[in-house]
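Limitations
The structure tokens in this dataset are predictions for the assembled complex, not deposited experimental models. Users should treat interface geometry with appropriate caution, especially where small molecules or nucleic acid strands are included. An illustrative entry is reproduced here so readers can see what is and is not provided.
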Amino acid sequence: MMAFYFSRLVEIFPFFLKGLWMTSQIAFISLATCTVLGFVLGILRSGKNKLIRWIIGVYVSFVRGTPFVVQVFIVFFILPEWGIQLKAFQAALLAMAIMGSAFICEIVAGGINAIPKGQWEAGTASGLSLVQQLRLVIVPQAMKVILPPLVGQYVLLIKDTSVVSVIGVMELTRVGWVTVVRIPEGLMVFSLVGILYFVISYPLILLSNYLERRMAV
Amino acid sequence: MLADFNFRIIFEYLPLFLEGLRSTFFISIVSIFLALITGIIACACRISPFKLLKYPAIAYIEIIRSTPLLVQIYFLYFGLPTLGVRVPEIQTGIIALMLNSGAYIAEIIRAGITSVDDGQIEAGVSSGLNYLQRMRFIILPQAIGATVPPLLGQSIVLVKDSALLSLISVMELTRVGQTMTSERFMPAEAFFTVAFFYMCIYFCLKALADWSQKKLIFREAY
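Predicted assembly:
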């Protein structure tokens, strides 16, 4: 029986590759958007404007305080009630962007706040504008603090893409879920799904470990 | 938008929400306790010089860390019955959370132990303390302090992760929101209430984590 199911699984393997492709697409697009948004929000959060800082703080607390699956449901079920129609794929990307940018925002703000005040003052004294100070002085130094947790966060984000399977996006976890109904070998099917996730996330874990060791020195 | 937010329906479902909250508490507390035990054992194996213990521990930690929790939950949920093991969903869920958080906790404890300065250990050696005494009097008292804030952080993660058990129909907080959505189709009321309860738990644990962090910094300065 096992052998029979195994051959069936081999038969439908292209289906899994399609799921892997979908997962990679979601992961890639959301990592890019989250990084950009996270950096913008993080820089604003470490800025001087109290109102902006407070608003971003509330947003970050909401995202960090609630499970991602609840956020996915909120985006997918509630936005249509307010007249915003989204396809499952778009809702997934939006939910990922909302969640990921909040976490990256905290990492970036932490990195920027770790830079001593003297660096800002030196920038001002050299006649650099605020944007130049950030671009030439502050962010390059903060990257040392930001990079290791950022890559770690990327791994978490890639794994979190599995949660968007709940709204029917045909990514890797959803493919496994659909397959297990036809091939009732849960261990086999989800081992395969797990291996495919391992293939994408393990290199990043190794990179994160390497960066942590390198930046610590 | 929020003008027609229906509070009455929330009050109507309040007993169910509280039941879900209780269930989430129960699952989280049991899982974090079991995960702590798993994590301590896994960490002890990970740092032990015996290869037979060390390599399985590394494999366990790395496999858990590089696959999504949802896949691990489904693996157990759909996989255990094929092995002939039939347990209720809630137990499957708790096992999944235990194994998942156990791997992260093992790494947290390991980081705590390796953070103890080498000089401290050398001082212990030159004071004539043996391995167990060094662990007992020098390494662990310092390591435990350093691990408390990240452990509280991990318990915040675990509470949020327990929401995924709703997908294998465990009746916890998120599942109550799903039930209410399917019965009345009021997703805004349902999921914002669910989010509110999670936020309450989050702020309590966060306050505790911040407090322990402050305590820790104070102690180090002292």
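Some entries come with short summary sentences. For this one: Chain A has one domain: 2-216.
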